[in-house]
Amino acid sequence: MAGSLRIRVENAYDGAPRTFYPVVVIGAGASGIAAGCRLKQKCGCDQFRIFDRQSGIGGGCSQDMHSFKTRIHSQENRPVMYKSRWLSLEKILMQDRPAFFYSFSFAPNYLSKTIFPSGRDYIDYLYNVVKRAGIADKIQLNTEVISLEWIEKDAEWEQYISQVYGQDSRGKKTEAVEIVRAKVVISAVGVLAESSEWPSSVASRDTYNGQLLHSARWPDKISLDGQDVVLVGSGCGAAQIAPALLQTKVKSLTQIMRTAPWLVPRVEEPGGRDAYAKWAPRIYGMIPGLGYTRPNGRLRKQEEASCLAHMRALAPITYHDQLTPTYQLGCKRRIYDNDWLRGMHDPRFMLESRPWRSVADTSITVGDGDNAKTYHADTLILATGFEATQFLQPISVVGRHGLSLHGLWATCGGPHAYLGTAVDGFPNFFLILGPNTFSGHTSVIMAIENSVDHAMRLIAPILDGQVESIEPKTIAVQTWLTGIRRDMASTVFASCQSWYNGGGRYNSVMYPRSQLDFYLRCRFPRLSDMNRMLKPQGRERQLWRRMGRVVVVGVLTCALIFYRELWKYTVDSGIIDRVADTTMSMMSFVSRTVQESREDQLTTLQSLLHSDKIITPDLPEHPTLVQTWASQKQMNPRLLIRPNSTESLSKAIAYLYSSSLEFAIYGHGFMSASAKDVLVSTSSLDDFHLDKHSELVTIGAGQT
C-alpha cells in the first residue's frame, strides 16, 4: 500500500477538522467483516475503518446489550416500539441454513455443535473471526453514516457520520455529527437493514394502543404471559417465533398469514444432537469442506410433493388448505419447519389467512364485509421482514456531477450495479452483496465472498498508488443489466410476488444464474469494462506492461517466421526426403536383423537339443485341450517342442530365456508369455492340434 494512503487528521486548525481513511466500510455484519478481513489479508491494508450504527457486530443478527426505548408516535397514549437495536431473539431464532453454509471459506466454522446454530452462536462465530483476523480495533460502533458525496477535485468521498454517545437525563439520545474523508468506500449495508414497519394496506395505525413489537427490534426482557398475542407474517422468522411463544404462558396466539410458505422438514443431526455436538467439530476440523458436499437437487415437482406430504402429516387437517402454496417451489424462500406445524395443534393457536384490514384500541380486524372478524390483541408482533429492494436506505449517496444514486436507480426501474458491485458515475464506491447477487435457497456467504473478492481486485491498484479512481463504463453496466433482466424472466423467481421483487416490481435481489457463474466472473474481472484514471506510477507501470506485451509478441512472431523459413528450406533442399529414406532403411535393416537373428536362434535351439524336425499334419478330427487353448490365445507357433525328459526340458527353457525368442510353456497347469516363435509342451503328442505350417521338434529319444 502506498505510504501516502494512511489514516490522518486534516484541517486540524481551521475549525473544520476531519479524519481521512484510505478505506471506509459501512456495516459490521458478515459482509463488512469479510471486507475487513480481505483488505488485510489480500491487499495488505490495515488503514481502514468499519462504521456500524448498532452497538454490536453481526448486522441483522446482532443485539444491543444496552437497549433503549423510543416512542414511534409523539403522543403519550401511542404504542411503544421497543428498539433494542435490531435482533435480540437469539434464544428463539436459529439459522435456517446449516452452520457450514454460514461460515467463511477463510474461517470455517468447525465448532458448531448443531446443524442449525442459534443467532447467538452465529454472533459468537463472527466475534471469533474478528478476533482472529485482528480487526477489532478497526470497528467503530454506534456510528451511523448519514450521507456520502464524491469530491471530484480531491477524488475522495466526503461522509457525514452521526455518533451516538448515550442518553441524557430525559432518556434522549445524544449525538454528534462528524465529517470524514475516504479514498474508497465499501458499502456492506445489506438488504436486511431497514425493517418493514407497517403494511400500507392497513388503516388506522394511530388508533392502536397496545404493545407493538417487531421481530427485527426485540426487547431484551419482556413477558407476554397472560396476553392475547397477534403475530403478523409467515416467513422464516414468524415460523420460528410462533412455536417459541407457545412454549410461554401466552393466553392466545393468532397468526395472520398472507400466503402459505413451502415447508421443508428440518434436518436432524446424524446420530442425535449429543453425538453431533461431540464429534462434528472434530470431523469438520480434520476434513475441511466435508459440510459443503450436497446431493443433487430433486426435480421441482417431486420436491413439492415431499413438502406437501410433510405438511399434511404434521399440521391439523383444518389448516391443510390454508397451508397449501399456490405458487411454484423456489419462487419464495423455503422454510425449515422447526416445530411450527406441530405447534398448530395447541388449543391456544389460531391460523388466520384472511387479509389484515385495520386496527383499533387493542384489537385487529381481518377480512371484508360479512367475512370480517376481529381479534383481541394486547400485543401485536410484526414479523413482516425487511425492505429488501431498497438498497443503501436511508443513506444519501451523491456521485459525479451531483448524481443521486437512488435517483439513478429510480429512473432505471430498480437498483442495479455492474456484477452487483460497482455503479457508473460513482467512482471508488463498491457494494458488497449488492443488487442481483443473492443465491436464494442457500447461504449468502458465498455471494458475499464473491463480491468481496471482486471488489478487492479493483481496490488493490488504488491502494498501491497506481489508480486514482475506477468505475464501470456505462455501456458495460447497461449490457450487464439487460442480460440479468433477460435471464431473470425465465427463472422461477419471476413466477410469483415475493420480497425478492418488492411485490411484483423488478427483481433486484436474486442472481438468475449459478453462484459458480458469479464466482468465475468475480474471479476474473474484465478490466476492459472499467474506466480507470491512472496516476503517474500507474501510467508508468501500464507503459512497461504494454512494452512487455510488444516484446513478447515480437519474439513469438520472429520465432514463427524463423521456423517457417527453416521448414521451407528443409523441404526445398530435400532434407526431409533424405531423412525419411534413411529412417525407412534403418527400420528395414533392423527388421531383417531381428528376423535373421530369430532364424539363427531357432536353428541353434534345434542343434542344441540334437533333434530332427518333424512336420506335423493337420489333425482337425482330434480336438483337444491344447487345441482349444491355442485357438483362444490366437497362437500360431513356428516351432513346437515336446521334451521327453526333465533334462531336455531344462535345456530348452534355459536357452529360450537367454534368447530373444517369444515362447510359451504349456502343460501341468502353467503357461507364460506368448508362443509367436516357440511353444513348449510337457503333454503327449496327441494333445496337440497344430497349424499345418508349424513344426514339431521331439527332444530326446523315444516318446511317451
From TrEMBL:
The keyword Flavoprotein applies. Its cofactor is FAD. Pfam families: FMO-like. GO terms for molecular function: flavin adenine dinucleotide binding; N,N-dimethylaniline monooxygenase activity; NADP binding. Coiled coil: none annotated. Gene3D superfamilies: 3.30.465.10, FAD/NAD(P)-binding domain (3.50.50.60). Transmembrane segments: none annotated. Keywords: FAD, Flavoprotein, Oxidoreductase. The keyword Oxidoreductase applies. SUPFAM superfamilies: FAD-binding/transporter-associated domain-like, FAD/NAD(P)-binding domain. InterPro entries: FAD-bd_PCMH-like_sf, FAD-bd_PCMH_sub2, FAD-bind_Monooxygenase_sf, FAD/NAD-bd_sf, Flavin_mOase-like. Belongs to the FAD-binding monooxygenase family. This is L-ornithine N(5)-monooxygenase.
